[in-house]
Specification:
- By secondary structure, this protein is mainly α.
- It has one domain.
- The N and C termini lie far apart (63 Å).
Length: 167
């Protein structure tokens, strides 16, 4: 009888500890998600309004890069990619959400927005230069080796941009 009571008490303690740890974990996860939303969504919103889901997803990617850095952004890549499709399914709802998020700017929003816009400008400039170079090579002689080299440079630029830490 003593062993059974002892076993039940230990089991009860383990269950209570498990519940406390589970509740703390959920609470902590919610706090992190909430803090992230308070920082990222206003940066995303300030880059709009958007003409398409693709534009919105690009702005979301720049916001994540600016606020969270490349590692966290890489973890969110699939969700950011899916955002374009979801946005296009109901742009009016997303525009309303964007306007609401824009009103929630925090003290660091402007700083993060500057970083996000800088990332967008760098990527656009690099891609424009590469695209112009592609056209030149194709018009000149269609040299496939040079095109392959340009594509490799383009991919390297994109990788470096994605790996740049946010400030």
């Amino acid at each position: 009888m003593m062993n059974t009571n002892f076993f039940l008490i230990v089991l009860l303690i383990v269950v209570v500890i498990g519940i406390v740890v589970w509740m703390w974990s959920r609470s902590n996860t919610f706090k992190r998600a909430s803090n992230m939303a308070q920082e990222i969504f206003p940066v995303w919103a300030a880059q709009g309004p958007f003409e398409s889901g693709q534009q919105s997803a690009a702005a979301m990617r720049y916001a994540y890069l600016a606020v969270q850095g490349p590692e966290e952004t890489a973890q969110m890549a699939e969700a950011i990619e899916k955002h374009a499709q979801v946005y296009d399914e109901n742009p009016a709802t997303w525009e309303g959400l964007r306007q609401d998020a824009e009103k929630q700017s925090g003290e660091k929003t402007e700083e993060y927005l500057t970083v996000a816009k800088g990332l967008a400008a760098m990527e656009s400039l690099n891609l424009d230069i590469i695209e112009e170079r592609f056209r030149e090579v194709l018009e000149r002689d269609g040299n496939k080796e040079e095109l392959a080299s340009l594509i490799a440079v383009d991919l390297e630029i994109r990788a470096r941009l994605a790996a740049k830490p946010a400030r």
